[in-house]
Amino acid sequence: MAEGSVPREVQIDEALTRRVADLARLELTDDEARTFTQQIRAILGYVGQLQALDVSGVEPLRHPFESATPLREDEVVVSPPNPLGEGGYKVPQIL
User: Which pTM value belongs to this model?
Assistant: First the structure.
C-alpha cells in the first residue's frame, strides 16, 4: 500500500471472523464468532477515529517517561601512546 493511501473498506462479518479463526487454527462457537465480530468492528472503528486525527504538528514520542537523569555529552580523550607505539582511546573501566 502506498504511503498516504487509504485502505478500502472491508466488511467485517462472521464469515471473515471464522476465516481468520481457521487460519489461526482456532475453533469458535457461534456465540464466540458473534462476540469477536462485534469486538473487531469496534476496534477497527477506533482505528478509523485515530486515522482521522491530524498529527502533522506532533513531535514523535521517543520514550513514554522523561529521563530522570539528563545525559551528558560524549567527550573524546586521546590517550598517550602505549609502549608498543599504538594509539587509542581511553574508556572507563567496566569491571
Answer: 0.52
